[in-house]
Amino acid sequence: MIESxxxxxxxxxRITRISEMSLQGGSPQELFNQNFDAEQFAAYRDKSTEHDxxxxxxxxxxxxxxxxxxxxxxxxxxxxxxxNEKERPNAPIFHHLNTDFLTRLASLGVSxxxxxxxxxxxxxxxHVGWNTQRVDGKWLPTFPNATYLFSAxxxxxxxxxxxxxxxxxxxxxxxxxxxxxxxxxxxxxxxxKEGGEVLNGVRFxxxxxxxxxxxxxxxxxxxxxxxxxxxLMHHPLQVYNTEWNTRYCEFPAQAxxxxxxxxxxxxxxxxxxxxxxxxxxxxxxxxxxxxxxxxQYR
Length: 298
Prior knowledge:
- By secondary structure, this protein is of the alpha+beta class.
- The chain has a single domain (7-297), classed as 4-Layer Sandwich (Metallo-beta-lactamase, Chain A).
- Helices cover 21% and strands 30% of the residues.
- It has helices at residues 28-32, 38-44, 101-106, 125-128, 152-159, 174-185, 237-240, 252-269, and strands at residues 7-10, 13-26, 60-70, 75-78, 117-119, 132-135, 138-141, 147-151, 188-191, 196-199, 202-206, 215-221, 224-228, 272-274, 283-289, 292-297.
- The strands form 3 sheets. It has a 7-stranded mixed sheet. Strands 10-11-12-13-14-15-16 form a 7-stranded mixed sheet. It has a two-stranded antiparallel sheet with strand order 6-7.
- A hairpin with a 2-residue loop joins strand 10 and strand 11 (202-206).
- The chain is globular and about 50 Å long.
- It comes from Rouxiella silvae.
- Belongs to the metallo-beta-lactamase superfamily.
- One of its GO terms (molecular function) is hydrolase activity.
- Residues 63-277 form the Metallo-beta-lactamase domain.
């Protein structure tokens, strides 16, 4: 059975979470690696909700999902999950998946052909998989009428051997089956390092660090702002511990600086934060508390 799909209104936009996977049982020590501090984690428990930690208070709950954005002008998808049938031997949880992601889209009356744009915050394994699907042994664009927008720097980097490092090992092979086929098909539009507006009210914002040219995306409509942060954060723990990077942050100093910027931006602008890996509703507001921040689900 397909779970109820969460939708939000931001101006003239209808924004709906399309879930792919729920992740439970991961330890904060493993995810945050060198940044983990047991005392800070213990202090966080009082701020956490039932959506964030398992009942034992020791293990994380996370999500992998995409955001469907529907406006009078376009239908677009922000990030593209992990995909089905992909070879991911270095990341067993993504290896040869068979999820009902496209069925969830169809339940909203949205076919792959009706997607106009796919916007990618970065090119890690769990953000690009549904870009393509296997047809007669070949990887072809899943959304055949869509233009796929993503960073030119990221495309060059992940096509090169420079990306074959320990931090990025879970994403090895992603370029070949989920990025290059888009370029080959002529449906990719590469975004420069400066980001900028790509559609009316839709802007790529440089937030590097988690990946080499990671970008967040803001969409303004009717005076309201939706902020799609990508992987600035993987869990609400990081709202309260802004220096905590995950083991998947390739450029740690930049990642921390971008995370801090994103939190300040969301708190000061009142933008609604659409996360990529928070569980619960995956959506919330960021508030300032002196020099710290807090999170509230919506």
